[in-house]
């Protein structure tokens, strides 16, 4: 499906493009709703998979192949598996039902609705620079090379900081998981 | 060499970020110490303190440089950031000493155990590294990464007593709130990037100066500042703070109470000064609205925290609410940096008032928490109602605790008073809004007297059986306490020297990498001559500044 999307995206005038966009958008939004409404945590994880895959497909259609691949590998591949493992290893009952009280539900709905309305109003009242068109893909497929170059030149410090951050997180995680000897 | 040169020679650039590199290397060294020999706790402590000291030397080595924005606009290294970093490193070192000297002889199951020293110190150094970078970051990506680098170790530190239910509750709250606020921050930044097309703070400021703040950009900025508000624990996002402070070990609480908020306020000042420097007629109204927003945020935070602090009986929770209130005062002052409607605070005044506040707040906070830690160590009392009789059992500690609490309140003669006066003077430059804020500051200060005096009341005036033995602090704790007390008395009784120092260091690198070269702005005044109302001087001469 994603390969198809990529092929379609390379022909910008194809009538399939808007259609595909709406399909993937519906997939993304629909499964996002399903995550919120579902009460079974494993089901939520599966719906999350389809949401993330839908977003990845939209990235493909925007000519951001690298981002889409990362989205699939890191989120759909890595994070999701971790979530499922985490649920299975920590919860006594992986099929636990999560029940929310009506008050929490109403409060959450209110906050979500107000944020959504604010976002819509803000979006409709702001000039979006560059128009709505997807940025044209530069000649040749050198995204990855350019990203690599940027990471090791302009963005070297944040990149290195990420490495240090991973070390700290590993130390903290190892400490938390270590058995306490008395 | 002109400051703000985009392309310094590599050696100069490396020297400017040497403090951060030293901290990162120190982290690695601390983690490696258990592999060499059996006394892992002593060695890792020595290694950590050595790393902090070397980083401090590296900072002093940069102070003659003036102000520079380096690494393609990622970081600004300027006297403002270096002052904060030096303060942070000294503070972190003292926290480590405090931890060693207040450890119980016979540790309880929940205490930080000595064999966990490498983990604790690695996390402390990692958090310091993130906070040091927060004070320098001038690029949205760098701001985000630095904030995360300061947050993750803090989550680990908050849950360091992993067998303790209270600590787990606090740490979990911290992680969940932190994840949500990070998400808001990065989403907001993506919107800002989408609207302005740049990640550099200078570019964003320039865009705001030219086009004002569109609703979409306003949403992005709100999200971005929500992440900072979480670190500052301002009101809608302060719920983690008391729980974390209560559950975490006292040394961690001491560290978080000052360091995480100070780093966030430095970053906030830098962002707001960048925005105000690029302001124009097109954006004045929008920035005024933003300033009002921050002023309201700070005022609500301070008031809320002081009202909630009134009924706290746990000393660490009480000091947690107190730290939220202080963050509120500083946020109010940072708002002035944007130029409130009826007048523009000169940027330097705001930065120097904040630096002075941080200097005194660091030490009164350290002092109060150290006394609390010693009392916990010797008597186990965390509830202030159990402080009965402490004035008889240890008159010196009771006196010092009184001094620190009165300084937190703002008693004339102590550093906390001068710091608050400086805040008020900065606020007074902001017209009507400034006077409203001064009134808020005054009322809040009076309200806070009640809860700062409660521990004092219990120490001196509540009777106990009079049978329990006297106790004293360990020599190292006592040294920390005396140094803090002397510093507060010095800044309180003769604030001149400290004031001159903070004014000297209140220079920020010009936020605009391209536009700051315009003549006329740089040569307003010689920073060395006029003390009272200096403007930010992009062409700051290379000054021989030392840490007095």
The two chains with the largest interface, and their residue counts, are: A-B, 30 and 41 residues
Q: Give the CATH superfamily of the largest domain in chain A.
A: NADH-ubiquinone/plastoquinone oxidoreductase chain 6, subunit NuoJ
- CATH class category of the largest domain in chain A: Mainly Alpha
Number of helices of chain B: 20
Find the CATH topology of the largest domain in chain A: Four Helix Bundle (Hemerythrin (Met), subunit A)
Q: How would you summarize the topology of this molecule?
A:
The complex is a heterodimer of chains A (182) and B (548).
Chain A (H helix, E strand, L loop, with lengths): L1 H8 L6 H22 L3 H21 L3 H26 L11 H23 L18 H10 L3 H22 L5
Chain B lengths: L9 H7 L1 H15 L7 H21 L7 E3 L4 E3 L1 H23 L15 H20 L3 H19 L6 H32 L4 H11 L3 H18 L7 H8 L2 H28 L3 H29 L5 H22 L10 H33 L10 H4 L1 H15 L5 H14 L2 H31 L13 H19 L2 H9 L44
Antiparallel strand pairs in B: 1-2
Helix pairs in contact in B: 2-3, 2-5, 3-4, 3-5, 4-5, 4-11, 4-14, 4-19, 5-6, 5-11, 6-7, 6-11, 7-9, 7-10, 8-11, 8-12, 9-11, 10-13, 11-13, 11-14, 12-13, 12-18, 13-14, 13-17, 13-18, 14-16, 14-17, 14-19, 14-20, 16-18, 16-19, 17-18, 17-19
Structure, described:
The complex is a heterodimer of chains A (182) and B (548). Chain A is built from seven helices and no strands. Chain A has 182 residues and is mainly α. Chain A has two domains: 1-94, Four Helix Bundle (Hemerythrin (Met), subunit A), CATH 1.20.120; 140-182. In chain A, α1 (2-9) runs parallel beside α3. Chain A is globular, with a radius of gyration of 21 Å. Chain B is mostly helical and 548 residues long. Chain B is globular. In chain B, 69% of the residues lie in helices and 1% in strands. In chain B, β1 (68-70) and β2 form a beta hairpin. The relative contact order of chain B is 0.11. In chain B, strands 1-2 form a two-stranded antiparallel ribbon.
């Amino acid at each position: 499906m994603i390969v198809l999307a990529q092929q379609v995206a390379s022909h910008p005038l194809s009538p399939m493009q808007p259609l595909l966009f709406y399909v993937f958008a519906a997939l993304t939004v629909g499964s996002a709703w399903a995550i919120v409404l579902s009460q079974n945590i494993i089901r939520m994880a599966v719906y999350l998979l389809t949401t993330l895959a839908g977003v990845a497909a939209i990235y493909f259609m925007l000519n951001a192949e690298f981002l889409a691949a990362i989205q699939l590998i890191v989120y759909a591949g890595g994070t999701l598996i971790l979530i499922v493992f985490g649920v299975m290893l920590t919860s006594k009952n992986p099929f636990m039902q999560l029940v929310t009280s009506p008050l929490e539900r109403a409060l959450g709905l209110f906050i979500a609705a107000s944020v959504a309305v604010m976002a819509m109003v803000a979006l409709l009242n702001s000039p979006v620079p560059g128009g709505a068109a997807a940025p044209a893909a530069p000649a040749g497929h050198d995204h990855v090379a350019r990203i690599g170059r940027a990471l090791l030149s302009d963005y070297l410090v944040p990149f290195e900081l990420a490495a240090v951050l991973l070390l700290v997180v590993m130390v903290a995680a190892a400490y938390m998981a270590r058995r306490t000897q008395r | 060499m002109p400051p703000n040169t985009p392309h310094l020679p590599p050696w100069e650039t490396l020297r400017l970020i040497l403090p951060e590199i030293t901290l990162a290397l120190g982290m690695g060294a601390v983690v490696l110490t258990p592999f060499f020999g059996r006394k892992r706790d002593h060695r890792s402590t020595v290694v950590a303190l050595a790393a902090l000291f070397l980083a401090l030397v590296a900072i002093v080595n940069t102070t003659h440089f003036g102000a520079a924005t380096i690494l393609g606009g990622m970081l600004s290294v300027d006297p403002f950031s270096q002052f904060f970093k030096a303060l942070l490193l000294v503070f972190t070192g003292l926290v480590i000493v405090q931890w060693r000297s207040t450890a119980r002889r016979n540790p309880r199951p929940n205490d930080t155990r000595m064999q966990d020293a490498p983990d604790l110190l690695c996390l402390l150094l990692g958090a310091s590294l993130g906070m040091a970078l927060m004070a320098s970051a001038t690029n949205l990506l760098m701001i985000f990464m630095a904030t995360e680098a300061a947050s993750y170790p803090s989550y680990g530190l908050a849950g360091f007593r992993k067998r303790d239910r209270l600590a787990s509750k606090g740490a979990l709250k911290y992680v969940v709130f932190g994840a949500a606020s990070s998400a808001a921050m990065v989403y907001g930044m993506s919107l800002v990037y989408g609207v302005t097309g740049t990640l550099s703070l200078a570019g964003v400021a320039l865009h705001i100066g030219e086009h004002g703040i569109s609703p979409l950009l306003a949403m992005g900025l709100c999200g971005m500042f929500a992440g900072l508000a979480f670190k500052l624990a301002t009101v809608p996002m302060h719920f983690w703070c008391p729980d974390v402070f209560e559950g975490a070990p006292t040394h961690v609480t001491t560290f978080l109470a000052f360091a995480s908020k100070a780093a966030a306020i430095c970053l906030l000042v830098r962002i707001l000064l960048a925005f105000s420097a690029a302001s124009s007629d097109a954006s004045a109204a929008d920035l005024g609205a933003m300033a009002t927003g921050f002023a309201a945020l700070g005022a609500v935070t301070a008031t809320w925290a002081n009202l909630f602090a009134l009924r706290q009986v746990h000393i660490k929770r009480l000091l947690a609410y107190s730290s939220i209130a202080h963050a509120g005062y500083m946020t109010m002052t940072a708002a002035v940096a944007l130029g409130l409607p009826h007048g523009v605070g000169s940027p330097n005044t705001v930065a120097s008032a904040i630096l002075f506040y941080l200097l005194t707040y660091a030490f009164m906070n350290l002092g109060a928490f150290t006394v609390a830690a010693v009392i916990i160590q010797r008597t186990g009392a965390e509830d202030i109602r159990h402080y009965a009789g402490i004035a008889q059992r240890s008159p010196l500690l009771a006196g010092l605790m009184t001094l620190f609490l009165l300084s937190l309140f703002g008693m004339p003669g102590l550093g906390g008073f001068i710091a608050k006066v400086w805040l008020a003077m900065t606020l007074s430059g902001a017209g009507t809004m400034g006077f409203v804020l001064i009134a808020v500051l005054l009322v809040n200060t009076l309200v806070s007297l009640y809860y700062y005096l409660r521990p004092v009341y219990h120490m001196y005036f509540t009777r106990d059986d009079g049978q329990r033995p006297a106790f004293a602090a360990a020599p190292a704790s006592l040294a920390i306490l005396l140094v803090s007390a002397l510093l507060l008395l010095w800044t309180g009784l003769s604030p001149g020297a400290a004031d001159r120092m903070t004014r000297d260091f209140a220079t920020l690198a010009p936020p605009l990498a391209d536009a700051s070269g315009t003549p006329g702005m740089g040569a307003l005044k010689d920073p060395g001559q006029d003390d009272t109302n200096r403007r930010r001087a992009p062409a700051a001469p290379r000054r021989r500044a030392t840490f007095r």
